[in-house]
């Protein structure tokens, strides 16, 4: 955190990203009568900080490419000072961050997309395993995950179980290891 007031007085402090420390950050900013906060948007690391501060300050989310244009060597301390300086001079333009409801809907949509991708991967794996067993449905069924395909798979499994139960009912269990080996070699 770096706070620069109108007279140029600079106050710096480091906080961890634990929730308790982020609450201390918020309280420190409120105690210093800060109105404007700018922060770098790095991956998803900015989100918890944003959620704690957004209701209390006028927030600006800064593009990391803007920070990389620093005229000096890049460090976190220099980044913070640079962001505070350009915010104070009004040179920073923040990105729009949607309201909380829209953010949650986007999270649900991303989760839904990930789950659909996992379903497709499972269906493709089933298809590959069937092809290894010389069963190729992809020539005849366009959607491997369709209800028709599921019915076909259930009937194959059911037939296999019927054969196994018939085999177990009609073939006596081997008594010795040698008889087990002879059954395997048949």
Q: Name the structural class.
A: mainly alpha
Number of strands: 4
Count of discrete alpha- or pi-helical segments spanning 4 or more residues: 7
Provide the low-confidence segments as ranges. Answer: 180-186
Choose one word for the global shape: rod-shaped
Rg over C-alpha atoms, rounded to the nearest angstrom: 32 Å
Give a structural overview.
The chain is mainly α and 186 residues long. The protein has 3 domains: 87 residues, no CATH class; 48 residues, no CATH class; 41 residues, no CATH class. The protein contains 7 helices and 4 strands; from the N terminus they run E-E-H-E-H-E-H-H-H-H-H. The strands form 2 sheets. It has a two-stranded antiparallel sheet. Strands 3-4 form a two-stranded parallel ribbon. The longest helix has 33 residues.
Summarize the structure.
56% of the residues lie in helices and 9% in strands. By secondary structure, it is mostly helical. It folds into 3 domains: 2-88, no CATH class; 98-145, no CATH class; 146-186, no CATH class.
Key structural traits:
3 domains, 186 residues, two-stranded antiparallel sheet, two-stranded parallel ribbon, mainly alpha, 7 helices, single chain, rod-shaped, 56% helix
Give the SSE layout.
Elements lengths: L1 E3 L5 E3 L6 H13 L4 E5 L5 H8 L4 E5 L1 H5 L7 H13 L11 H33 L14 H24 L6 H9 L1
Parallel strand pairs: 3-4
Antiparallel strand pairs: 1-2
